[in-house]
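Supplementary Text 2. Reproducibility record for the structural model of the 131-residue chain.

All settings were left at their defaults, and a single model was retained for analysis rather than an ensemble. We include the record here because the model underlies the residue-level annotations in Supplementary Table 4.
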Amino acid sequence: MTTPTTASPGLSTYRESVTLDLAALVDRLRAVLGARLVAYLGGVKETRAVRQWAAGERVPSHVVAQRLRLAYQVAGLIVESQNSPAVVQAWFQGANPQLEDRSPARVLREDDTDGVGPQVLSAARAFARIG
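Retained model, structure tokens:
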């Protein structure tokens, strides 16, 4: 995830979430969230699948790929506001009042990304602003 180079927070991470090859995206997401959290988001039980996705040896379903791209964008928003990977991980796993006290990871995993994507992004933007 890159440091913001524009006046629009999250724009560079959004661009990366759309343009990065999925293996590279998973590798970068794993570096921030850790393999276990990426596996949870991807709906798999073993981190081996995450390693295989990152190596390009295996391709997740379209729905999972969409979820991982959204998670990358969300994580990037929080990283851009100078937060460590530990803070990003805690944010993804903690109960969030903007998401009816559900964790962002759970919301992303269990709900349709088209429906909840804007809510999770809004919660991430709010956190990034206030820290």
